[in-house]
Amino acid sequence: MSGRFTIPKLRWVIAILLFTVTLINYIDRQAISVLKEQICENLHLGEEDYWQIVMLFLIAYAIMYAFSGYIVDKVGTKAGMTLFVCVWSISQMFHGLAMGKWSFAACRFGLGLAEPGSFPAAVKAIGEWFPARQRALGVGIFNAGSSLGAAVAAPLVATIALHRGWRAAFMVTGACGLIWVFFWLLIYNSPRRNRWLSEQEAQEFKEVPKIETSAQKTSWWEIVSSRSGLMVMLPRFLTDPVIYFVLFGLPDYLENDRGFNLVMIRNYAWIPFAFGGVGYLIGGWLSGRMLEAGWSIGKSRKTVMTIGAAFLPVAILAPLVPSSGLAITAMAMVVFGHAIWVSNLMVLPTDLFPSRSVASAAGFSGMGGAIGGALASGLIGTIVSHYSYKPIFICAGLMHPLAALLLWRFLPDKYFREEARAALP
User: Fold this and answer.
1) CB-CB contact of 406 with 239 (8 Å)
2) Per-residue b/e over 338-348, b at no fewer than 16 CB within 10 Å?
3) Confidence class of residue 90 from pLDDT cuts 50, 70 and 90?
4) Closest Cα to residue 48, out of 358, 412, 299, 382?
5) Which fold has domain 10-190+222-410?
6) 379/381 Cα distance (integer angstroms)
7) What pLDDT digit, counting tens, does each position of 398-423 carry?
8) Which residues make Cβ contacts (< 8 Å) with residue 58, sequence separation at least 6?
9) Binning pLDDT at 50, 70 and 90, where does residue 353 land?
10) How far apart are CA 212 and CA 224, in angstroms?
């Protein structure tokens, strides 16, 4: 092995790659909310039309989340991630060619079919490269890309649109994913097959039991009918709609209820998502510290998730405070708390299921969240059009505490695979 070029700390380089693709993922999905007024004006869409398009995206997202996990388990992490990123990047670019509601909705549906695949693939990659004590941090790192991507989307997309038009914004953001795929294909492989892994780091993996291969059968029914399966789906069904509302509704809320224009959205709408990036890292780090201190996997995950859930009731204050600055602060606490919550929620499949089923379980988990988001989106447009944002914010503030109570009640520590703790040194 001597004399060949290697990449130091390759595990963390891969985490940065996953962070970057998640960032691109969220820039692509967030572009529609930043450009909502320009798109609606150009394509002659109303408020309910917009939320119907969001709902179609989330329906596709829900359909494909479960299948994408299965596909990743079958074809492997590297090929699965490549497939999904290429498809969603091309779909994103096609948004710039849409001529009306249904052509735009078709592009959005295509984006929804492809975007969820990166998350089971990323969770599986973390499971392949990180020990249990570092997995929540690994998930926190790549998930921080979601908040940073949502934060970057407002200034980036708005700036492109202001100078080149909204269609160009979709073209540019879509091209970023195709560039990322080049580096993914160059660098990524499993630890035992990766040519960039140094001899010293390779020693860490020699004593690791061989990862179960995709040839071993993954039973969907065993996943969805088990208590573990239900408890990775139900909490996301309840809580993912909150962050989807923030992603797709925050710029619109700031514009309609707080009087923001596109320049103001570019300057301020990124702030809550920056807090989310910090939350992802804190949530992952804190869970790892608890494991190092001797806490059980189940107790550490659920405790950190409960800490995150405790921030969410502040959402109720967002439409009630007198100033836009306080409203943005309230939303920052919402995104921060959700990030702490989900950095541990998304790692649960690696704690509860054998490696051959991790991506499938993560896929079903995400499917639960997308179904919740699709149902919520169908209601949000009607509620906002006929009433106000206040009922939405009240529900957003209550879902995470409810989900935390369900986890403590129905997912005791005996369901967690404690042997995963010693998977790597």
Assistant:
1) no
2) bbbbbbbbbbb
3) very high
4) 382
5) Growth Hormone; Chain: A; (1.20.1250)
6) 6
7) 999 999 999 999 999 888 876 555 44
8) 112, 244, 370, 371, 373, 374, 377
9) confident
10) 20
Q: Is 89 left (phi over 0), alpha (psi -120 to 50) or beta?
A: alpha
Containing 269, the helix (H) or strand (E) segment is none
Q: How far apart, in Å, are the Cα atoms of 336 and each of 87, 142, 272, 307?
A: 30, 15, 8, 11
Asked if 365 and 236 count as a contact pair (C-beta separation under 8 A), the reply is: yes
Euclidean distance between CA atoms 291 and 299, whole angstroms: 9
Write the secondary structure of 337-381 as one string of H (helix), E (strand) and C (coil): HHHHHHHHHCCHHHHHCCHHHHHHHHHHHHHHHHHHHHHHHHHHH
Question: Would you mind telling me the total number of residues written for the chain in this entry?
Answer: 425
Phi first, then psi, for residue 191 (nearest 5°) are -55, -40
Q: What is the pLDDT of residue 205?
A: 64
Question: Structure tokens of 132?
Answer: 């249990």
Look at the block and give the residue holding tokens 């040839």. 215
Quote the tokens at residue 241: 């709609």
d(CA 133, CA 346): 14
CA 99 to centroid of chain Cα atoms: 29
Kindly report, residue by residue over 112-168, the tens digit of the pLDDT. 999 988 888 998 888 888 876 777 788 778 877 887 888 888 889 989 999 999 999
Torsions phi, psi for 198 (to 5 deg): -70, 160
State both tokens at 94. Answer: 């096609």
Q: What is the pTM for the complete model shown?
A: 0.74
* Paired tokens of 86: 């290429």
**What is the rounded distance in angstroms from the CA atom of residue 92 to the CA atom of residue 168?**
11
